[in-house]
Amino acid sequence: MKEVLDTSLKQQLLEATGYSQNFSIDVVGNTKLFHVLAGDFIVKEGHPPSYLFYLAQGRAKLYSTLANGRVSLIDFFAAPCFIGEIELVDMDHEPRAVQAIEACWCLALPIKQFRAPLLNDATFLRNLCVALSKKNYRNIISLTQNQSFPLINRLAAFILLTQHCDVYREKHTSVAEYMGVSYRHLLYVIAQFTQDGVLIKQKAGYIITNKSALIALALEMAPDSEFDKL
């Protein structure tokens, strides 16, 4: 993650995301701009973030390493959204890893300097509550879909969410756990995708060769989603 001193780009992202509308206090002058490469961390696991990040462009994933060493996927983030808001509100919260799926641009506000002002900013707290409620609602919908749709639809959506430049690289064990299916069942559906020419197995992962087929399957499950923009 690298700070970028580009006033013009920063202003463009501020306006495009409506960043300032999340606050009643003036934070623009103290807001920094960071560029995060695909695979780099926005927040490192176990390390409290120094900034309240606002994902202005890009996608990221949230995960945690369990006591037995296994990595558990938790959620996915798409711009625009806050990252690090839980650590801002709860200083005792154990930070989870947030990793960029693709190149990301983040606006960032120093937590140490702005914790007290933000926790007394009614506009920010109201917007934060709305954002958290939307995340919770999305998780409820995801749980409902997991119970109602076959794995082929859910995996198609998952591949679209996690791919970068049409390459899918997620570990099978983590994906099976996240989706609540057996490792064997997951491999069966992936094999079906490869046999149908949707994916091609490579050493570094799977190349998506028929993205429209994945989009069609994902839209059967979530017709209002914008999978075609991923």
Automatic annotation (TrEMBL):
Annotated Cyclic nucleotide-binding domain residues: 13-135
Protein name (database record): Transcriptional regulator
Gene3D superfamilies, per database record: Jelly Rolls
NCBIfam families noted in UniProt: PRK10402.1 (NF007707)
Alphabetized InterPro entries for the sequence: cNMP-bd_dom, cNMP-bd_dom_sf, RmlC-like_jellyroll
Organism: Hafnia alvei FB1
Signal peptide start-end: none
